[in-house]
Specification:
The complex is a heterodimer of chains A (about 575) and B (about 120). Helix content of chain A is about 75%, strand content about 0%. Chain A has about 575 residues and is mainly α. About 0% of the residues of chain A have low confidence. Chain B has about 120 residues and is α+β, with helices and mostly antiparallel strands. Chain B has a single domain, classed as Alpha-Beta Plaits. Chain B is built from 4 helices and 4 strands; from the N terminus they run βαβαβαβα. Chain B has a 4-stranded antiparallel β-sheet with strand order 2-3-1-4. Chain B is elongated, with a radius of gyration of 18 Å. The mean pLDDT of chain B is about 85. Classes of the chains: A mainly alpha (about 575), B alpha+beta (about 120).
């Protein structure tokens, strides 16, 4: 019987002859003349191929479905084409590559510092010093957050005449805005640490934070120059909890809680993220108030626009400088703490330098991609949505659908976008596993993911409705958060932890810019005052849905145990 | 049970240490070369070469997979070679392979096989 044999297998089996070499000799030789290994091109390919490949695919999976959904919607439902798709395509590629480099850079360059500091600091320093370091770290990590660039990019889509203070904060005073957000996150980290030390309950903290936040919202809504800031302020809470802040801050937080608190509380990692999404809105609203009381000359900036920008303000130099300004202070701070205060040596310096270089490069490329890929794509999709239900000059035969059907299509689009973007979020998947273990399987991973995704979807839809119908932000924020407040009061502590943190997990560096640009594009197309607020609604949504699911689970568990009891008695 | 335990001799253990995720390639190559099965476990560690790689060392995963393959001594060399080629072990950082003689091993041996071969003492 003929047996098949691959020629390659045959050659491979035949070719290799074994030659013996004593390991003793090899060791003796390397000891005599230690030298760096020479690598062939093939070796480089074999080493780097999988290394790059795995990380590239990771980001590809996060970006492509979302982008594809937007393009399909524009093409299939709105019958319009994507303008400048070549530059958008290149921009999206830049986003993927930039994120890949950036994440690897943070892992190699920043995380080792943070972990080391988190574990050794509480033993060596007094508590106030630890808190000080945590605060500064919170501020600086926020500045390094890739999504924060999206806020600045979104600023170019805001009109100055309709919303002077919003325009001022996003364009000429964007540094103030970013600093305010960072300050909020720093305070949140500080409070989170204090919570570890004193064992405060998150429930009471949330109530203590929500009350001033909501009253400030009411205060701002009275002044119609400041009213547009409310949407931006609450959106900032979602922007901050991204891939840099969360791991960096958690590494320090877990170290501190292990050193200070009694016993291992599995929930101790939670909480900081929650506070980091509540404090920034307060900080941004305070900034708005300060700007209006200080009577800042709003229109002064008009003249500066005419001036030819200096070389460092033009692309791509502005992106390079922005990236350096975001990463280097954070790195320097971490290095100083480790070197001067902790006096622990920096291990593997070369790899740290490599990581930091990657992080800076990644951020640059990501910023470019943000400008040319994510922002235009989201803006276009948002700008086209009204063609479904209103007269629109650039789309032939608009309105494409009857008014209410068109509105329905727009809201369904928003719902699907929010739901889809959330289901694919890897951080949520990881959280689902933790939750399933913590609740002994009562809250399954799948149920958590679906609850959060449904909440985000509904939130995005509500936000889009807000922009289309020009509903004042106060009317949505206040009732939504009052409802969460009420539910928080009656829910148990563990579900409160879970629900509030799930809001922060869902807003990654791809979703945030896309949704921001979408809202602004939509706002411009329908002539709304501002397009912010969608992200804010997308973060309240999951809090509500998870709290409700938690209550439903508790109710069902009680029901079943009651039935079992009745059966036992009967 | 008063049956004898069948003890196999001429047995070789091949151990392969590779980066996390490569074990499947190793097992496939080994099975193609005639190996019956394999045991994989997870480990972590870094090697001599990896230290010499410098910054390129980041491309090498410290998480490792260790593959145990027990084979007959006739097959062993061929399996050894096939794995070496398939796992690209000539590239620094990719891992290593070694082979040791086993004094004896025992497992399920089909009854009809024993009957056919007769009893070797």
């Amino acid at each position: 019987m003929a047996k098949k044999l691959r020629y390659g297998d045959y050659l491979g089996a035949v070719r290799h002859r074994q030659r013996k070499l004593s390991y003793n000799e090899v060791v003796a030789h390397t000891r005599l003349s230690p030298r760096k290994t020479r690598l062939r091109m093939l070796d480089l390919y074999r080493l780097l191929g999988p290394y790059v490949g795995v990380r590239f695919v990771e980001q590809l999976v996060a970006v492509v479905p979302l982008a594809a959904f937007l393009v399909v919607f524009e093409f299939g439902v709105l019958h319009s084409e994507v303008h400048g798709w070549e530059s958008i395509f290149l921009g999206m590629t830049a986003v993927i590559c930039g994120l890949m480099l950036f994440m690897e850079g943070v892992k190699r360059g920043l995380m080792p510092f943070s972990e080391n500091i988190g574990y050794t600091m509480p033993g060596k320093f007094s508590t106030p010093k630890v808190l000080g370091v945590a605060f500064v770290l919170g501020v600086m990590a926020t500045l390094a957050e890739p999504a924060i660039g999206a806020l600045k990019a979104a600023g170019s889509l805001v009109s100055r005449d309709a919303t002077p203070y919003l325009h001022l904060m996003l364009n000429d005073r964007s540094d103030f805005l970013v600093l305010a957000v960072g300050f909020g996150v720093g305070l949140a980290v500080l409070t989170g640490m204090l919570r570890f030390i004193f064992g405060w309950r998150l429930k009471s903290l949330i109530i203590a934070t929500l009350v001033p936040a909501l009253s400030m919202t009411l205060l701002l809504s009275v002044d119609n120059r400041l009213e547009p800031i409310i949407g931006l302020a609450w959106d900032c809470g979602a922007v901050t909890t991204g891939p840099v802040t969360v791991p960096l801050v958690l590494a320090i937080g877990i170290g501190v809680s292990a050193a200070t608190s009694r016993g291992d509380n599995p929930l101790s990692g939670f909480g900081i993220v929650t506070l980091a999404s509540l404090f920034p809105p307060i900080a941004v609203m305070s900034l708005g108030l300060a700007l209006s009381w200080g009577n800042f000359p709003v229109l002064e900036a008009a003249s500066s626009l005419a001036v030819e920008p200096a070389w460092f303000e033009r692309a791509p130099f502005d992106d390079i400088i922005a990236a350096l300004r975001a990463i280097l202070p954070l790195t320097l701070f971490l290095w100083l703490v480790q070197h001067w205060w902790l006096k622990s040596p920096v291990k593997e310096g070369k790899i740290l330098v490599y990581g930091i270089t990657l992080a800076v490069m990644g951020m640059m490329i990501f910023n470019v991609g943000l400008d040319y890929g994510l922002t235009p794509l989201g803006g276009q999709a948002g700008g086209m949505v009204p063609a479904a239900f209103a007269q629109f000059s650039s789309v032939q035969g608009s309105p494409l659908y009857p008014y209410w059907a068109g509105i329905g299509i727009a809201l369904a689009f928003a719902l699907l976008l929010g739901f889809g973007a959330t289901v694919a979020e890897p951080a949520l998947n990881a959280m689902g596993v933790t939750v399933q273990n913590l609740t002994d399987g009562a809250f399954t991973k799948k149920r958590l993911i679906h609850a959060v995704a449904a909440g985000v979807g509904l939130g995005v839809a509500l936000g889009v409705a807000k922009v289309i119908f020009s509903i004042p932000m106060v009317m949505l924020i206040i009732p939504a958060y009052l409802l969460t407040l009420a539910l928080t009061v009656i829910s148990s502590e563990e579900y409160v932890n879970l629900a509030w943190d799930s809001a922060g997990v869902t807003t990654g560096p791809v979703t945030v810019p896309l949704v921001l640009a979408l809202g602004l594009g939509l706002g411009k197309a329908v002539g709304a005052q501002d397009g912010f607020g969608i992200l804010a609604m997308a973060s309240v949504g999951p809090i509500l849905s998870v709290l409700l699911t938690g209550m439903w689970i508790r109710w069902r568990v009680k029901q079943t145990s009651a039935i079992v009891e009745r059966m036992n008695h009967g | 049970m008063n049956e004898d335990i069948i003890v196999l001799t001429d047995v070789v253990l091949i151990t392969v240490i590779v980066q996390r995720g490569v074990a499947d390639t190793v097992v496939r190559a080994a099975q193609k070369a005639g190996a019956q099965g394999a045991t994989i476990f997870y480990a972590r560690g870094t090697g001599v070469r990896q230290r010499h790689l410098g910054v390129l060392g980041v491309a090498v995963n410290a998480e490792k997979e260790v593959v145990y393959i027990v084979a007959s001594s006739d097959q062993a060399d061929r399996i050894f070679e096939r794995i070496f080629v398939a796992a690209k072990l000539d590239t620094p950082g990719m891992g290593m392979i070694y082979m040791t003689h086993l004094e004896k091993m025992a497992t399920h041996v089909p009854h009809d096989l024993i009957a056919r071969m007769g009893n070797h003492e």
